[in-house]
């Protein structure tokens, strides 16, 4: 007996389809998880086992093989807990086999069966909508995922609530999108005395979308002027808002599904290395090499 549930893997802000395939076979009772997952993914076995025990369920007395396909795609994070658990329950007959068709799932499991928040709910919802699927996610991530336009979102507090929903005994409603924040007040050029040439350069760069380089001795006001550039720019367009919010989502910076129209502004030190700006490690180096080869 086998079952399949769709989930998503993240490559930056891009979400890629992953199929969770679960099969019950004869043999010693063991739980195998394959598919090139990291430490957090491999630990999903124990979280799923603990969540089932917390619900009063036991895993089948058979060999369980869970495959995350494609197997050559690296997978990171704890959001694979929920799709693995749903696939097992579908294989056990706890959830109707066809109930999960048309859905993708992301979420981490607590040992009592609750579904806890994960990063990346917004790009996951956008990618699921692009695949023609709805998204099953933690209840706390529902307001964030609801920003993904017409994508159906099913935000559940626990595995038991999901089982009841698919059995028709407790229907979960579509979550509402979080609030839109205007953002905090940014520094304004009216606070600057003098520096007329620098002000003019900032205004031209903001109006035309140009790059700008300030050169001068320490203390001449370069950082002060640069910090006032966001105050000259209009609010984020819908496309820019979505792209920026997806980055914030993957980084876990969206609280209660609240998005902000404020333009992001970063001030790295001039001596910061490339690794400090973009992150270190083998995967970052590979991504940089791919970018340079394009």
Number of helices: 11
CATH fold naming of the largest domain: Ribosomal Protein S5, domain 2
Question: Can you tell me the overall shape?
Answer: elongated
How many structurally independent domains? Answer: 2
Order of helices and strands: EEEHHEHEEEHEHEHEHHHEHH
Poorly predicted runs:
290-294
CATH architecture of the largest domain: 2-Layer Sandwich
Describe the structure.
It contains eleven helices and eleven strands. It has helices spanning 39-42, 44-54, 81-92, 121-130, 142-145, 159-167, 196-208, 222-226, 238-250, 274-278, 282-293, and strands at 2-11, 14-25, 31-34, 63-69, 103-105, 108-109, 115-116, 134-138, 153-156, 180-181, 259-260. The strands form four sheets. The protein has a four-stranded mixed sheet with strand order 1-2-4-3. The chain has a three-stranded parallel sheet with strand order 5-8-9. The protein has a two-stranded antiparallel ribbon with strand order 6-7. The radius of gyration is 23 Å and the shape is elongated.
């Amino acid at each position: 007996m086998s079952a399949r549930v769709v989930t998503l893997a993240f490559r930056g802000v891009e979400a890629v389809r992953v199929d969770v395939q679960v099969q019950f076979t004869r043999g010693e009772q063991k739980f195998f998880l394959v598919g090139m997952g990291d430490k957090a993914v491999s630990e999903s076995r124990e979280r799923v086992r603990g969540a089932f025990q917390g619900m009063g369920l036991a895993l089948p007395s058979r060999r369980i093989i869970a495959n995350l396909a494609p197997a050559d795609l690296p997978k990171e994070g704890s959001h694979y807990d929920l799709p693995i658990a749903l696939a097992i329950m579908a294989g056990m007959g706890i959830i109707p086999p066809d109930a999960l068709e048309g859905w993708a799932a992301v979420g981490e499991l607590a040992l009592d069966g609750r579904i806890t928040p994960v990063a990346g709910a917004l790009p996951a919802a956008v990618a699921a909508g692009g695949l023609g699927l709805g998204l099953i996610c933690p209840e706390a991530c529902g307001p964030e995922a609801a920003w993904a336009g017409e994508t159906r979102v099913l935000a559940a507090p626990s595995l038991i609530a999901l089982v009841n929903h698919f059995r028709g005994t407790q229907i979960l409603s579509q979550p509402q999108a979080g609030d839109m924040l205007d953002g905090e007040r940014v520094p304004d050029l009216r606070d600057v005395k003098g520096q007329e040439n620098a002000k003019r350069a900032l205004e031209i760069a903001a109006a035309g979308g140009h790059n700008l380089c300030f050169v001068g001795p320490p203390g001449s006001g370069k950082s002060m002027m640069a910090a006032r550039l966001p105050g000259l720019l209009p609010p984020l367009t819908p496309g820019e808002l979505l792209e920026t919010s997806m980055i914030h989502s993957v980084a876990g910076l969206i609280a209660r599904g609240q998005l902000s129209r404020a333009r992001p502004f970063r001030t790295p030190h001039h001596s910061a290395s490339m690794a400090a700006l973009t992150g270190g490690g083998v995967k970052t180096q590979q991504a940089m090499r791919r970018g340079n080869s394009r």
